[in-house]
Amino acid sequence: MSASRITFALSLLSLGSVVMGSGIDNPPYKNPKLPVEQRVQDLLKRMTTQEKIAQLRSDGNPKIFEGPLKTTGFGFIPLYPLRGMTPAKLAETLNDWQKEAMGSRLGIPFMPYEESLHGCIDSGHTSFPQAIGLAATWDPDLIHRVALAISQEDRSNGIRQVLSPVINVCRDARWGRMEESYGEDPLLTSRIAVAFCSALEKAGVVTTPKHYVANLWDGGRDSHAVEISLRSLFDVYMPPFKAVFQEAGARSVMCSYNAVNGVPCASDHWLLTDVLRGDWGFKGYVVSDWGAANNVWERFHVVGTEEQCAAALLNAGMDAEHPGVYIYGKGLDDAVAHGLISQKTLDTAVGRILRVKFEIGLFDDPYVDPAKAAAAATDPAHTALAREAAERAMVLLKNQGQTLPLSSSLHRIAVFGDLANGQVPLGGYSGNGNREQRKSILEGLRDHSPNTQFDFVPGCAIGGDAELPPVPVSALQTPGGQPGLTGEYWTNMTFQGDPKISRTDSAINFNWDNEAPASNFPREGYSVRWTGFLTAPETGDYEVSITSDDGMRLMLDGKTIVEDWGEHAAKTTTATVSLRQGQKVPIRVEYYQNGGQASARLGWKRLGATDTFLDHVREAASNADAVLVFAGIREGEGQDRAYLKLPGNQEDVIKAASAAGKPVIVVLVAGAPVTMEGWLDKASAILDAWYPGQEGADAIANVLYGDANPSGKLPMTFPRTVGQCPLYYNLEPSGRGYDYVDSTGAPLFPFGHGLSYTTFAYSNVKVSGSYPFTVSVDVENTGKRAGTEVVQLYTHQQVASVIQPLEELEGFQAVSLQPGEKKTVTFTLGFDQLSMWDANMRRVVEPGKFDVMIGSSAEDIRQRAVVTVAKGVKGEAIAMHPAGQR
User: Fold this and answer.
1) SS3 845
2) Which stretches in the chain have pLDDT values below 50?
3) What is the pTM of this model?
4) How does DSSP assign 416-433, residue by residue?
């Protein structure tokens, strides 16, 4: 080549490098060194309308997202179809999908999202105590450590957004989702929510606090329409949301299903734009609760078409529809094409989503290492932390005569409660833990005290009043002649093809909750068929029952005896059949599970027979040195409760066991309060273990035997009767009184209550300063065991222009003390603690006197003081409500 040609070629190469540098092959939005806002605006300019709309869509069905993923890009992919995968396989799958997304025209990654309420919900990850149990620790530092562990497991998988936490303030114990919440108080909820969200956000995992806002109301029912004053809304229900956005940097929020003051939350411009973005400065994106977008059109009927619905949602500030492409499908396409949504509004919504994807590094580093995913999920430090959190969460409600801790010298203990003999329950929105096989509570007790004989008596069940005792293995036989029934498990809901699993099940008595029925099997969308023979021990008429969530049917000798084939929360259906002693009757039971919680149970009882079960309870209790009863409830999403008593025969078992005169210890394994009218005096001790997570069996044993000293405090009030609901500690003054004609208005156990195996003394309260004030108090461990006390500070404004609660939690600290050790605990009382919403809905501190109360619960006040504010202080005001309300 001649020198002139070489020079010409080099000049072309130089020109090409200049062209690439100018952005043709390496556009600014791909440059990680540029400011995020510059990258967002550059990318928006290059996107077509369809590419923009695709960023507002979410779907977990590959048939829906795979095509757009490779062409226009796609906004969000929920990972619920992948929940049966191992952590490494999940990481590999997300890597493959991200490669497809990065190969699209503009190379826009999708946002993979999951549930991580108290641990990644996908298989094989650490399961910590349920959210309400975490709240019972009253320890934001501990919660932050838990959330850091969760973030490591999520992030290593490639999960970049979690639909957690639930920060709705819950003042009604009947709500089925109380277990997912942090309880009834806005301050406690706020501090724990900030601790949780900040840990994940710093790790590059977007949190989605939910449900915005006030999604439980009359009757404790979920997602019913709410009529509420703005003062109550901002005093009680809004503070946790404001806190996580302004303090924890939460980048997303989920709007709720319900309507507030006549407007669906999903299409409320005032909530989603004026307050959220205007007053609070939120820069992230809003997603819908699963199906909340449809509600605006199909349930609330405030719009007439899908197109109008899409416009109402996006114009209000609801950016992305979850979980599938419904309203933001053709409806959104049409709304944009017909001008119901402006290009500016579309760009604003898309920009919010792109901005977060840039901020968390998704464009620059979308892939993960599957080996690191597997290692993070089984980190021994996470397992140890799960046990620590479980022990710290437990609340000792009653301990008459120092019944607890148990002595290792006890020779024989009777154990009742069927939930003690299966894997320790984890609660709603739970993974299965990182153990191959979780211990049962009974195994935890036997491992802890191998020299004690634990006599387990089955038949104490959580089931409803119609649920019958389970059909025992002695009455069942497989087609091959083995005890039990042959269970065949399909990975579809219609028994199509060959079953993936075939095994012998000793009985049909399963409460899988949110877990898979076996390893490497899906947790949703499956069916089961059990076959064999049923043999009655006596001739007679038998009442048979099926209890299931979702569909179930029973066939005997080829005939359908009882059937409830549909999607529903757990419920019981019964029928009566005649059976002859010794006759082998062909039996076939079928079950399918669509989504959410899962359970299947086959029960029976011979009519006219003497019920001898309670005699067995009394006999077992009489032969024991002590009695343990593990009791639970039915609850969860879509399972609000009309009654708060222990369901099934559990209360009868407690009463029967107590008749033997032995110490009876009741351990509650539940996520919400229960009433105890019929058995409180029968129990010597009551321990609330909540849903304690994968390490719960060992943690319960450690607390019962005193290796761990309980330090949990109630994050909600326990009512005496369901008729008191809603009941909460921070009541406003009554113009009449607080009692009923047939009951007291006082709680069974107050907010903040929790006993210890040691005792604590409070003294020497001091106040210094003149706004803001410093309040200190000395706390001493006066017992013989090391322990942790949660010191709680409450205030009450003596005179105010707007009535104020009788007391309001304004500070708390968990303090660990050795026997005889004393520490000084200090609190600050400033604007955040002493301010209120005045008549004009402005946040102010009014001059005057404030009572300061420090103690061990809302009712156990140990020290008091008074502070005086000499001069008022004005703060923020809220955006004017469209109706002109303040």
Assistant:
1) strand
2) 1-23
3) 0.89
4) E-GGGGSBPP--SS----
